[in-house]
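Q: Convert this sequence to structure tokens.
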Amino acid sequence: MPGIAICNNMVTPYTNRLFNHMIDCHGLDLTVISCAAREKNRQWSERYAARYNHILLRGIEFDLPGSRSAHINVGMWSTLCRLSPDLVAINGVYPTMLVAAAWSRVHRKPLVFLTDGWAIMMPQSIYHRLTRPAVVDRCRAIICASAKGRDFFVEQGADPEKIFVANIVPAWGGPADIPEFARRRYDLLWCGRVNDERKNWPFFVKLVLELKGRLRALSVRIIADSPSRPEELDQLSAADVAFEYTSHVPPEEIASVFSTARVLALPSKSDAWGLVCNEAMQCGTPCIVSPFVGAADELVIDDACGLVRPLEVEPWAAAISRLVDDPARWSAMSQAAIQVASQFNLNRSARRYVDGLNFAAAGPPPAARKLASAT
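A:
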């Protein structure tokens, strides 16, 4: 069985679920090498029920603009030498990943590039514009998270045949009980970081204030990943907006949060995918998103299973108010959201991920072996 080394920044709840599934259903010999147990701007658990070998390297994390992080770690080269994998996958071009790429080249092992980014998400520093094309050109396969990601690499000159789209999927499955319109307490839901400029929290606050003038009985649920209580909540209180604020919800309770809302708002200025949309939609909660969200027009289809609107408060408020004022239309959109979310499932993403690994392993040199699959 060929050995696979996936080199990433950190294991997340959803990648842990994906990796476990690839082992259980596709029989992969998988080791995951991480730069950090948890990056500074994340509140995820550092403990997972992992059925793969997980190696955590010692290193330093650097904060970058846009709530991004870079890592410099020791031990990548020696770890790969000890493992001697048949295939190496990397998720970027920062120093630790470049060491892994160099190891694959010296030892003539296939290299795979992993990313959830697309055009507006890709760093465009001189470093990246020089380094990324050189690394990607060497990769036997590219596994990205969206059609937008695929389009980016095609526009950069990559062979379309070596690009595989494995969408990000939630760390948990949808609930059996999905409440209908009348059983939902909140008209609007925010679930995300407020100190990340890309998530556009100020826009959401303006949106709520505009909606208050349209929906007198407006009710809002706010799950704000924030080190302190957001001061903008005082504006909502002053406007007599009925809202419930929570800074954090345990993973075992998050499905119940999505199931209490009629619409989730994700007004991101840029978002690699928008996993919160998958989570909401599998709970029957339609989403309104900006065109700058990776899931827009791929998972969230405008006026079908959700809403895609330009980043202007008035169109968002108008679209939301029309939807929550029309229970029949909301119910149809809720059912469509469930159906579409079910298509973006763990089995499909794992299969496409493994297809990308298979493609890389089957290429030159001739001695490369095809990854085994139980399917």
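The first helix runs from residue 13 to 26.
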